[in-house]
Amino acid sequence: MKLLIKGGRLLDPANGIDDQLDLLIEEGIVVAVGVGLNEDDAHILDVSNRLVVPGLIDIHVHLREPGYEYKEDVLSGTRAAVAGGFTSVACMPNTDPVNDNKTVTSYILQKAAEAGLANVFPVGAISKGLKGESLSEMGELGEAGCVAMSDDGRPVRDGEIMRRALEYASTFGLPVISHAEDLSLVSGGVMNDSFVATELGLKGIPWVAEDAMVARDVMLAEFTGARLHIAHVSTRGAVEIIRAAQKRGVMVTAEVTPHHFTLTDEAVRGYDTNAKMNPPLRSADDLAAIREGLADGTIGVIATDHAPHHRDEKNVEFNIALNGIVGLETALPLTLRLVDEGVLTLAEAIDRLSSGPARALGLHRGQLTAGHVADITVIDLDARWTLNAAQLQSKSKNTPFDGWSFKGAVSHTLVAGKLVFDRLEGRESIV
Amino acid sequence: MSFGHKHILGMDQLSADDITRILDTADSFKEISAREIKKVPTLRGKTIINIFFEASTRTRASFEIAEKRLSADTLNISASTSALVKGETLEDTARNLEAMHPDIIVMRHGHSGAPHYLAERCNFSVINAGDGAHEHPTQALLDLMTIRDKKGTIGGLTVAIVGDIAHSRVARSNIIALNTMGARVRLAGPRTLLPTGADRLGAEVFTDIKGALDGADVVMMLRIQQERQGSPLLPSNREYSRFFGLNPDNLQRAKEDAIVMHPGPMNRGVEIASSVADGPRNVILDQVENGVAVRMALLYLISGGEKMAE
C-alpha cells in the first residue's frame, strides 16, 4: 500500500531540509521525497498549510505497565503519545516487577505491539531491582529490545557500581541514562531549595544535589569512555558541567523537560501538587541557563518525563504528594512557545524533539529522507486551543498546564506510514 | 465594619489595621478571663472542632479555653484518635468534618499547607494552629499582644529572634507580623538553622547571638527540637547553648528594659538559662495568658463578631 503525503512543508532538521516537499511512502518506508509528487495508486493525505516533521521521539516516559496500570498502561500511554505527536517513546524500568530482565522487556514490547500505536523502546534497569547493588543482565536486556540502561528515579549512589555500569553497558553498545541526584543532599526535600521554599515552609532540594551527581557521572563517562545521557537537567550548574564535558569530547548528551524550561518554583505557591516533581522546578536563573543550553545544543533532547499519577496520589498534602506530571500531550505546544519567544528556531525545536533524541539513544529514526521509516508528525502551527486536562488521552490528568492556551497542535501522527492519530477524529484512527 | 477574613491561615493575609483590630478586641476580651464567671454567650450555638494532627498542649488548651469562654460547642480530635492514623486522606477527613456542619475548624498539621487545603475545599472557617514549618499565626498574634502590652507599641522596636529559624513556624509568622507592624527584626542562629534566603525575609541576619542582642527591645528565643542534636544540623545541645543560648551575660547586651519571650515548651539550659527563664524580664506566662484573649478575639471576629455586637 502506498501513501502520498502531499502539499505540506517538510522540515527535516537532521538533513537541513525545510521546503514544500511531498513524501511517498511504501510498506512503511519513505521511498521518495520531492516537489509535486504524483502516484496514481497511492492514498493521498492532503497536508496543505501543515508542517511535516520526523515523528517526535520522547526518550523519557513512564508507561507504568506492568504493575501500576491504575496510573497508565502501554495502551493508554501510547495513545497519549500519538495524540501528542510522538511516534516513539522510551519507557523507564521502574515498573513492578522492575524491567531488569528480558521477560519484562518482552512483556512491554508485546503490549506495545498489541496497542499498535507508537513504537516503544524499553529502557532496562542498571541494577537488579533498581537497588543500586548489582548490575542487571544488560546483554540479554539489549538483545530483548532495551535501548539504554537507567535506574531512573533511584540514582546509583555507589560510584563503583556506576563506573562498572558504564563500562558494562558500553560493551553492548548501550548508553546509560543517569537520573543525577545525590539523595543524601536531597535529604527529604520536596521542592527547590529557595526563598519560595522558605516562605512556604517546605524543605528544599538544593541545586548542588544535582550538580554534584552530574559532575560525578560526567567524570565517570570521561574515565570509562562510555556513552552517558543525563536525564531531566534542571540546574545552571548541570548545564555548565555538561557543556564543558562535551567540549572535552566526553560522550555525554542531556535532556530537559518542557516543565523545567517553562515553569519555576514560583509555581509551587498555593501548594499546587502538580508543581511537585523530581528534580524540582528551579529558579528563573536555572530556567534561563536551561534555555541557553537548549539553544546552543548542550541539551540536545527535549523529553517529557511523562509521569502519570492517580488523582488520589496528587490530591493530598504537598509533602506526601507523588512527584511528576504527565507530559506527552503538552510537550510539543510548550516547545513551540520557545519558538514564539525566540529561544529556539523551529528547526532547532523539531530537532530537540526528533533527531536529537534519536542521536542520544542511537535510534535509527528522526529523519525523513528516502529509506527511513515513515514515522511522521504533521503539525498545524496556527491551531489555537486550550488544554482541558480531563480530555487527555493519558489515564492520569496530573498536569499544571490545565487551562493553558496554546498555539500549534498535532494534526496527524503516522507510525511506519500508518495513520495512528488524526486530530479531526479526536483520537487515533487507522487508514 | 466586617472583619473581611473567613479564614486565618497565615500572618501574610493580615494588614496592620487587621492586626491592631485583633489586638484591640483581644484587650477587651482579656477582662473576661479575670471574672469569677469566666463565660460570655458570644458564640452560643457555634460549633468549633479542634483537630490536632500533631501533639500540642499549650495551643490546644488555649483554643479550647477561648472557645469555652465564648460559649461555643467544642470538640477535640487528636492524631492518636483520628481516622488519619487509620489511613484516611485529608480530603476524606475534610468531607466528613463538613458533613457535621461545624462553623470553625482549628487545625494543627505537620505538613505545610494542610490548612490551606482544607480552606480551599470546605465551607467552614479554618484557623491555622500551626502547619509544618510554615506559619503559626495565633502565636505571632499573642506575641504581638504581649509586646504591645509591655512596650506600649510595636513599630520601631528591635526584636531579636534566636534559634532554629529554618524549621520554625513561630519565627515565620512573627517575622511577617513584626514587619507588618513596623518593627526591626533580627534573626540569629548557626547557618544550619537559618533558612535559604533568610536575608530576604525582611530581617537582619546574624550568626552570632551577641550582635543580634545588642540594643534589642525584645528577645524571642525559639525552642531547639531534641532531634536536632546530633543530626547534621547541630553537633550538641551543649555547644548550641554556649554559642546561641540566652544567659544573664549576653542578655546584658539588650536594652535594660528588654523583655524575654519564648513560645514554649522551653529547654532550660539549652536555648535559655534557667536564671533568665525565671528572671524579671521574662514575659513567658503573659504570652500564655494573652494567647487565650487573642484566640477569643479571632474566633469572635471571624464569626462575624461585629454583627453580633450590634
Describe the protein in words.
- The complex is a heterodimer of chains A (431) and B (310).
- Chain A has 431 residues and is α/β, with parallel strands linked by helices.
- Chain A is 30% helix and 23% strand.
- In chain A, the strands form 4 sheets. Chain A has an 8-stranded parallel beta sheet with strand order 8-9-10-11-12-15-16-17. A 6-stranded mixed beta sheet of chain A has the order 3-2-7-18-19-20, covered by helices on one side.
- In chain A, helix 1 packs across helix 2 and helix 7 packs parallel to helix 8.
- The longest helix of chain A is centred in the middle third of the chain and has 18 residues.
- The N and C termini of chain A lie close together (11 Å).
- Chain B has 12 helices and 9 strands.
- In chain B, strand 1, helix 2 and strand 2 form a beta-alpha-beta unit.
- Chain B starts with 15 loop residues before the first helix and ends with a helix.
- The interface between A and B is medium-sized, with 20 and 24 residues.
